[in-house]
Amino acid sequence: MSALITTDNKPRLTLSQLFNMSFGFFGIQFGFALQNANVSRIFQTLGADLDNIAILWIAAPFTGLIIQPIIGYLSDRTWHPFWGRRRPFFFIGSILASVALLLMPNSIALWMAAMLLWVLDASINISMEPFRAFVGDKLPASQRTTGFAMQTFFIGLGAVIASLLPYIFTNYFHISNTAPHGIIPPSVKYSFYIGGVVFLCAVMWTVFTTKEFPPDDIVKWEEEKLESKGLAKGLVEIVKGITSMPKTMLQLAVVQFFTWLAFFSMWIYTTAGIAQNVYHTTDTTSKSFQDAGDWVGVMFMVYNGISALAAFLLPMLAAKISRRYTHMICLILGGIGLISIFFVKDNHTLLLSMILVGLAWASTLTMPYAILAGALPSNKMGFYMGVFNFFIVIPQILAAAILGFFVKHVFNDESIYALLVGGISMIIAGFLNVIVNENYKENSKEITEDVEMLKTNVDSI
Question: What pTM, to 2 d.p., does this model score?
């Protein structure tokens, strides 16, 4: 059966085609989840003081700030008959990230782990940033919400498995989660080894099963590419593009700022906070601390699992009340979940808090990009998706710069307060969705078509 051609001259893809083009995100998030759940634990195991953990994390957002718009700019200007436009970056980034994942748990000193975090985050960004533009490139407007939802599903699935790995190794394969001072536990090492392999294989699946469309007007595209050639011209064009962002992008940027300040607070301080608040220890060589680290993996599994399930439910809600109000509700619920962690003393009850965080995570990975994709020029999709990530990394840099000071001098080394700050920030982000302009009538029609297609595909399985 021939593909249905839409009004924007792009064929609607089948469920299997959406699967193939999104599956790479399973590997990317597998590596990202291992990083988020375990890097603070690795830093503390290698001797990092609690108030210095945030500063050690700062390499990651700084890397994104530099890498993302450059990769987006370059991928917009890349075309090869076999490799396409975005896939060369998937390929290169996956190789570099896999190597970093294999090396990270073998760090012999704190400086080595910090350097490998920089390499790992840079490599993940090289692969991940073009994946967002990939949806805009390949899918008609009526399928974009489903496209981002499919990515969110694989993000959640990859993160669920990756987050659980240390806990599984310890509790089901009886691999030790403790080690002498300054040595990474075997359960964490094996998790990263598996992560390196999964990252590479999943991204390669997308690289070799998905084809890309050439630029709409290849002659005009070649002329524009020649005009923008050269480092100086490229930098001028990047700066010009940043200063002329679409209005919708600026409005979403404010929401993103407070959202990602919350998530970064959670990733940095959950292990230390749960170890102190629930397991009552700060001794990184103790079994209690490592058990807390394993349980944080379970908590992160829950919020990622919920996001995978919610990915295909949120478009249905968005069709009824709009994308921005769907995002508002999810962020407010996520903020309540983060705040509740402050009051919970039982580790199993913490999983209820993470269910609410999972709704916020699902919406964060879907709704802003679905709103934004329709507001961007197609020939600058990669670049603007990279610039949009500024408003992910800038709050991360801010969090890395100030949270350590507040934890030490204001919160008296009680890192659980950082999660309280994160929850408040996420609720603020939720309410800020009222400033986002969205063509609800037009988008509602697109989302409804998306939902109907999704129901048809599910019924046919």
Answer: 0.74
DSSP secondary structure letters along 99-126:
HHHHHGGG--SHHHHHHHHHHHHHHHHH
| Helices 323-341 and 247-277, packing angle to 10 deg | 20
Those residues whose C-beta lies under 8 Å from the C-beta of residue 432, and which sit 6 or more positions away, are 254, 255, 258
Q: Which amino acid is at 338?
A: L
Give the three-state DSSP class for 11.
strand
pLDDT by 10s per residue, the chain, length 461 = 334 444 456 788 888 999 999 999 999 989 988 998 888 889 988 988 877 887 888 777 777 777 877 888 788 888 888 888 899 999 999 999 999 999 999 999 999 999 999 899 889 989 887 887 888 788 887 787 788 888 888 988 998 899 889 989 999 999 998 888 889 999 999 999 999 999 999 999 999 999 887 776 555 556 555 555 555 565 666 666 666 778 888 999 999 999 999 999 999 899 999 999 999 998 888 889 989 999 998 999 999 899 888 988 888 898 889 999 999 999 999 999 999 999 999 999 999 999 999 999 999 988 998 888 777 777 777 778 777 877 888 888 888 788 888 888 899 989 999 999 999 999 999 999 999 987 644 455 555 555 555 444 444 43
Domain 15-460, second-level architecture: Up-down Bundle (1.20)
Q: Find, among 373, 87, 102, 382, the residue nearest to 246 by Cα.
A: 373
Cα torsion through 433, 434, 438, 442, rounded to 10: 110
